Amino acid sequence: MTTLKQFALILLCASLVAPAVLAKKEERHGLPAKLLQADSIYIDCVCPRALAAAQETALGEFQNWGRFKISEDKRHSDLIVLFSGNPYLGDYLTRDGPDLRPVFIKSTIMTVIDPNTGQTLWNDYRSWGSWRIKGATKDLVNELREQMEAQTKRWSLDDILLCSVTPVYAGLGHLTPEGALAKPGSGTGVVSGTPDRLLLASPDAPEFCKRAQLVVDSQRRIIGYQVIATRADSLDIGEVLQHADRFDFTGGKYANGDQVYFSAESKDRKLLIQFDAEGHRSVLSKVTYFY
User: Fold this and answer.
1) Is residue 224, in this structure, part of any structural domain at all?
2) For the whole model, what pTM was predicted?
3) Domain annotation covers residue 15
4) In terms of domains, do 168 and 235 share one?
């Protein structure tokens, strides 16, 4: 039988094996907005010997996921995903040269870093030894994926449509930008910003459009408002297609690049839902409501 001293020794050894600076799963709160809204990642690896398998494995896993664009330049990526055998010290931007600490490959550590600050946005590890690097890497990427997808706001088409019939923003239609900025907020939304970029907010609006941006035409008249979706927003395109009789559908490429889009415009021309095509996925991009 295991004695009390032996049991205590087992617990002590387990605590030493796990890198102490890593966040424990049960202590982790909601994911940072910077992580949820990111579009691109740069994959880096402080990976001697067998640990080198982590970088190639991670690349395949992120490509299969399709959530992020893989960047080849850390300076132009939204996130840095770092694999290592030693805990991250927060010095990605400040250290002079490569990390020269000796690596004993007991753990595969994955750290998601803000490339502007060096701050850790997410991390975890698997203490599976040097023989299971690929499996540990796949498990870590899958854990991040599950957490991000759990925090994605899944809007319904009814959520989107509700914003088109709310009266809270109605009083701003056809005003000039200057007139909207001067208008009291009572009964409408609070308008802020500059005449070139008017922001709209109201606690009385439906949840999806509590914050929006006003749309101004060439005659400097406000013709609608637009909600720009983030990566934390999701609308199932299949739900829109189920109501195909209510929309006209178009698609194409943006004029400034190769990005493909798909749009659904309501028959009355009062609503325009736009998706960006990323591989086999359709990602909600923006929704415009016209007066």
Assistant:
1) yes
2) 0.63
3) no
4) yes
Distance CA 252, CA 249 (A): 11
Average pLDDT, integer, range 223-238: 89
Cβ atoms < 10 Å from Cβ of 209: 24
Tokens of 248: 């006209």
**Which DSSP string do the residues of 15-56 spell out, in sequence order?**
HHHS-TTSPPGGG--SPPHHHHT--EEEEEEE--GGGGHHHH
Rounded Cα distance between 216 and 195, Å, is 9
CA 75 and chain centroid, separation: 18
What are the DSSP calls for 270-284, one per residue? SEEEEEEEETTEEEE
- Strand duo 40-46 + 69-70: pairing: parallel
One domain for residues 107 and 124: yes
Strands (E), 78-119: 79-84, 108-113
Residue 41: predicted pLDDT:
95
Q: Where are the beta strands (DSSP E) in 202-290?
A: 211-216, 222-228, 233-235, 247-253, 260-266, 271-278, 281-290
pLDDT band at 214 (very low <50, low <70, confident <90, very high): very high
Residues in a beta bridge with 185: none
| Domain end residue (candidates: 119, 150, 181) | 150
The C-alpha angle 91, 97, 100, rounded to 5 degrees, equals 80
Query: Distance between CA atoms of 135 and 142, rounded to whole angstroms?
Result: 11
Tens of pLDDT along 22-64?
Answer: 444 434 568 898 898 888 999 999 888 888 999 999 999 999 8
What are the pLDDT digits (tens) for 185-196? Answer: 655 678 888 888
The answer to whether 265 and 247 are in contact (CB under 8 A) is: yes
Compute how many other C-beta atoms are within 10 angstroms of the C-beta atom of residue 110: 26
